[in-house]
Amino acid sequence: MVSGARSSEPSVAFSDETRAAIEAEMAKFPEPRGAMLAALRLVQEELGYIGPDAARRLAAMFGLRPVQVLEIVSFYNMFYDQPQGRHHVCLCTNLSCSLRGARTLLEGVEEHLGIRAGETTPDGRITLGREECLGACAYAPMLRVDETYHEDLDLPRVRQILDELE
Ligand code: FES
Prior knowledge:
Blueprint: H1 16-26, H2 36-47, H3 52-62, H4 66-75, E1 87-92, H5 95-99, H6 102-113, E2 126-131, E3 143-145, E4 148-150, H7 155-163
Parallel strand pairs: 1-2
Antiparallel strand pairs: 1-3, 3-4
The protein binds FE2/S2 (inorganic) cluster.
FE2/S2 (inorganic) cluster binds at residues 92, 94-97, 133-137, 140, 142.
């Protein structure tokens, strides 16, 4: 193969454990495609995100086209199509949180981290995002750090939360 030429073979490989777990999920369904969400979760647990190579490999397992896998990835906000930071910091900017200053808070967080929503800090520590309503409207404005909700926030408190993340 010419150096730099792109093979049609996916370059990522799932571990034997991940492949076996995906096959076990597929066996639970009369139509194996029913296991796609579980498979995506397993792959993301191993690789951190589901890029084009992983999508090609999954597509081959499920008898789909890679674009069909990527369409599912892009539909669900719990799946990522590119590398992520070690922590996900997501501010809710829906109505109740916005009425309580979430958009100004987001600007302050972007300035504090030196990135915009949707980006990752250069050290790979934090990926910043926006969320739709997370059901904590009575305690707006709120943000989610990984699996933890923080509520009734102002910028000094958010800066403190961010600075305490490893
Ligand atoms: S609008 Fe932010 S939690 Fe509901």
